[in-house]
Design goal:
This protein is an alpha/beta fold. Helix content is 37%, strand content 14%. Bound molecules: pyridoxal-5'-phosphate.
Length: 383
């Protein structure tokens, strides 16, 4: 099969019409109010509160600072139970709060924290659970809450992949004490860099607003050791424009998913990891799991072979966070304690997934994968 004559990347940012963006930038510059809770910031905060159907949202300059401030605002100490199968930011936010991650193994189907494994990790130092809705597959929110309630633990979700989706009929941002969202350029909804926290307890609003602005309460009063985590007006304005495009982008990604599903779903050795649709899907990623013995080659090999066709996939999330050098001494990072995570991290591959991906190209990518599969069995067929 021919290789693509253009590079196909794993994602492409959703961007506003450039004329709209230029008008927006002019408006911000003319207003002479560039940051510090300006009008665009206020509008976007309200629009996201409505869109995500949550009680409160606090915007920040990225998802990692949102998580940093969220953990701080909840007053956590000691140990936090989390997943090894996530983006580094999840556990780095724990480190920067002086919290020790306790890694819990994951579910082999959803790749999320396995609730059956949480309780055995709880000690008197545990103060919270930090689960991640990996690839928009929802965590078992009911069971996690039940465990948290029983042990009086806080639950803060990393919802970086869960923008605009529902879990058990309720918006993703309504579960737990808080949910962090990332508005990074690679995420479905983006403000180039940006993030936010959704939460039900209105009392957290004042605390988070203090923490994201150096703890400054008034012109002569600093009441917390805060951070600078403010989203500026141009990025907020960018977000207002991008949010308008999200419904159509979701439709387009659904069509892309259908083409992948049709072809890849019937190939031996491929399991589609991101199999939710409609309101239950964030359409953030399209990920597959490769079973070498049935598919014919392993994930790493497929990842390399696809490059020859100009198709660039990603091994999200490789390596596991529990494999980071600075966690070596932690008991919970031992490989024998995380068998499922160590297994799936070698098998998962995120494929190109964005609305502007031409459906003929999606079909062609799928057929390349089918061809790679079949070519590995030619020998055995002949024999
Ligand atoms: C993107 C991402 C983050 C970090 O968000 P930033 O906005 O880039 O800081 C955290 N967790 C997960 C799971 C992510 O995918």
């Amino acid at each position: 099969m021919e290789r693509f004559n253009k590079q196909i990347n794993v994602t492409k940012p959703l961007t506003p019409n450039t004329l709209m963006a230029a008008d927006m930038i002019t408006e911000v510059i003319d207003s002479e109010w560039l940051t510090n809770n300006g009008i665009k910031h206020q509008i976007l905060e309200q629009q996201l509160t409505d869109y995500l159907d949550v009680e409160n949202i606090t915007l920040t300059n990225n998802g990692t600072t949102a998580l940093l401030l969220g953990l701080k605002a909840l007053g956590l100490t000691g140990e936090v139970i989390t997943t090894p199968f996530t983006f580094p930011a999840t556990v780095e936010a724990l480190d920067w709060n002086g919290l020790t991650p306790v890694f819990c193994d994951v579910d082999p189907v959803t790749y999320n924290l396995n609730p059956d494994k949480i309780e055995e990790l709880i000690t008197e130092r545990t103060t919270a659970i930090l689960p991640v809705h990996v690839f928009g597959n929802p965590c078992d929110v009911e069971r996690i809450q039940e465990i948290a309630d029983r042990y009086r633990l806080k639950v803060i979700y990393d919802g970086a992949h869960a923008f605009g989706m529902e879990i058990n009929g309720r918006p993703s941002g309504q579960w737990g004490d808080m949910t962090m969202f990332s508005f990074h350029a690679t995420k479905l909804f983006n403000t180039i860099e940006g993030g936010g926290l959704a939460y039900n307890d209105i009392n957290l609003k004042r605390e988070l607003n203090l923490l994201k602005n150096f703890g400054i309460e008034g012109p002569e009063s600093v009441v917390r050791s805060g951070l600078n985590a403010k989203l500026n007006e141009i990025q907020a304005g960018f977000g207002i424009e991008v949010l308008k495009l999200v419904p159509e982008e979701r439709e387009k990604r659904y069509a892309v998913k259908k083409v992948y599903d049709d072809i890849l779903g019937s190939i031996d050795g491929i399991r589609i990891v991101t199999n939710r649709e409609g309101l239950e899907s964030s359409y953030q990623y399209f990920a597959i799991e490769i079973e070498e013995s049935l598919f014919g080659c392993n994930r790493d090999h497929l990842h390399e072979l696809l490059k020859d066709y100009n198709v660039f996939t990603r091994k999200y999330f490789y390596p596991l966070c529990s494999s980071f050098e600075w966690y070596k001494s932690l008991e919970s990072t031992k490989k024998e304690n995380l068998p499922v995570a160590h297994n799936i991290v070698e098998k998962v591959l995120a494929l190109p997934f964005y609305g502007d991906l031409n459906l003929e190209d999606v079909k062609y990518i799928s057929n390349i994968i089918l061809y790679i599969h079949e070519s590995h069995f030619v020998g055995s067929v002949v024999n």
